[in-house]
Amino acid sequence: MCPHDPACPDAEAPDREAARTLASHPEQGWSLLCNGVVLFEDTGELLPSGTVIAPHRPDPLVGAA
Question: Region entry Disordered: which residue ranges (predicted)?
Fold first, then answer.
């Protein structure tokens, strides 16, 4: 249960990445959010249910010719 006020978004919510960080390990490339989501620096996610969310980075811009 989230102790924050207002409460952090649930792990299944579309805005789950807005939850507060409980543990950050930038040297390993991941953070644990209050809702149990493991957020990776490549924007991939591991939900508490075991569901993997693929990275969702924007495509790199292609230079104009």
Answer: 1-23
pLDDT digits (tens, 9 = 90+) for 17-51: 999 999 999 999 999 999 999 999 999 999 999 99
What region, left, alpha or beta, does residue 36 occupy, with left being phi > 0 and alpha being psi -120 to 50 degrees?
left
Q: Which residues contact 37 (CB under 8 A, 6 or more apart)?
A: 11, 16, 17, 19, 45, 46, 47, 48
Q: Collect contacts of 26-29 with beta carbons under 8 A, ≥24 apart.
A: none
Give the whole-angstrom CA distance, residue 33 versus residue 53: 15
What is the CA angle 2-33-9, rounded to 5? 50
Position 34, amino acid: C
Reduce the DSSP state of residue 40 to 3 states and report it: strand
